[in-house]
Backbone:
């Protein structure tokens, strides 16, 4: 396999090499250093060289969505890889449990081959009061047998739950006990119940502030607890639609580096044109890059790719570049327990992204 030398200001995730280089074979980092570089089959030079991005919440892209065919899943992964995401968790919207199980079985080889980093079940155990772009007719209470069936595949990395549903707290504990990340989202829980859910093992806030009660000065709700608790990583969608840039900045600064995961929450239109799409069984209209349900106008995911999230976070919301990069790489990698991605030290296998001065992707080496 050919070797590629990526040169520029290298941010490995653990150190910055101003006149740096990274030697890769495929997605594997062989060496990284500063100054004189080793020989390679190909050299790529840019302003910045950063780790491949890690997205723990993505529903689609390139005109396709997860939950369909294996070919569609491969197209989604390829679309986001072209924008720098080399580690991708496939998020599935609410579906009947039998359909979720069938999708997991179909994706087993994609996970084994590394094309996908696992699956995120966003539903069906969500609140009808905050169902967002999930079909409310398919929402249900978590049953131990259903959880065991899906978690037992070993493919599920993240499960989003509303802890107020009957059996919700037990489901959080069951998810965490199975080695998956228990996430709180699409929830109407109050602050007290949210604290109990974190104590039970919840470690992730699914798209903080969205699909949950707003943060109020007399009722902090789930958002206040999840932002405050040091045990919790918070997902933030940096597209300028889901969060005002000021809110993005405030949340990122309060949580601090190591607790923020910038996610795409992308649907099929990411990397594609405006028009009508499907999310599960629901029609979605995308106008000027904003996805909304055709019936009612609720925001229905995003058309975001993580390179655009990086640019928005840094140039619009004012986040420090290293903080934003950590939220795209090291933090979500740690959430998944993946020490082999999210950095550019020798032995890493998440590839590299070469960026220009405007933080546009020049090359993805993976």
Residues:
């Amino acid at each position: 396999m050919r070797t590629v030398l990526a040169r520029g200001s290298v941010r490995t995730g653990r150190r910055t090499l101003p006149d740096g280089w990274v030697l890769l074979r495929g997605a594997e980092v062989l060496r990284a250093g500063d100054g004189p570089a080793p020989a390679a089959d190909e050299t790529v030079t840019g302003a910045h060289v950063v780790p491949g991005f890690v997205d723990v919440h993505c529903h689609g892209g390139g005109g396709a969505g997860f939950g369909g065919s294996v070919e569609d899943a491969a197209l989604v992964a390829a679309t986001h890889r072209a924008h720098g995401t080399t580690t991708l968790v496939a998020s599935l919207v609410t579906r009947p449990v039998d359909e979720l199980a069938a999708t997991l079985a179909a994706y087993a080889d994609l996970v084994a081959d590394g094309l996908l980093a696992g699956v995120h079940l966003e539903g069906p155990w969500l609140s009808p009061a905050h169902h967002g772009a999930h079909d409310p007719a398919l929402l249900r209470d978590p049953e131990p047998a259903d959880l065991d069936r899906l978690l037992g595949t070993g493919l599920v990395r993240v499960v989003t739950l509303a802890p107020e549903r009957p059996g919700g707290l037990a489901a959080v504990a069951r998810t965490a006990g199975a080695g998956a990340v228990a996430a709180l989202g699409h929830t109407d829980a109050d602050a007290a119940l949210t604290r109990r859910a974190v104590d039970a093992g919840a470690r992730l806030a699914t798209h903080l502030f969205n699909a949950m009660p707003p943060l109020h000065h007399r009722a902090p709700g789930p958002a206040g607890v999840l932002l405050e608790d040091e045990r919790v990583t918070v997902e933030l969608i940096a597209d300028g639609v889901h969060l005002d840039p000021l809110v993005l900045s405030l949340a990122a600064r309060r949580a601090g580096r190591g607790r923020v995961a910038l996610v795409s929450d992308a649907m099929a239109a990411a990397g594609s044109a405006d028009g009508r799409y499907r999310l599960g069984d629901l029609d979605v209209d995308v106008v000027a890059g904003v996805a909304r349900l055709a019936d009612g106008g609720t925001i229905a995911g995003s058309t975001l790719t993580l390179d655009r999230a990086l640019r928005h976070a840094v140039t619009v919301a004012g986040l420090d570049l290293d903080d934003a990069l950590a939220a795209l790489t090291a933090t979500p990698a740690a959430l998944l327990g993946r020490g082999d991605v999210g950095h550019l030290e020798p032995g890493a296998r998440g590839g590299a992204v070469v960026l220009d001065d405007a933080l546009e992707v020049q090359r993805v080496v993976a």
In short: The radius of gyration is 20 Å. The CA atoms of residues 65 and 268 lie 5 Å apart.
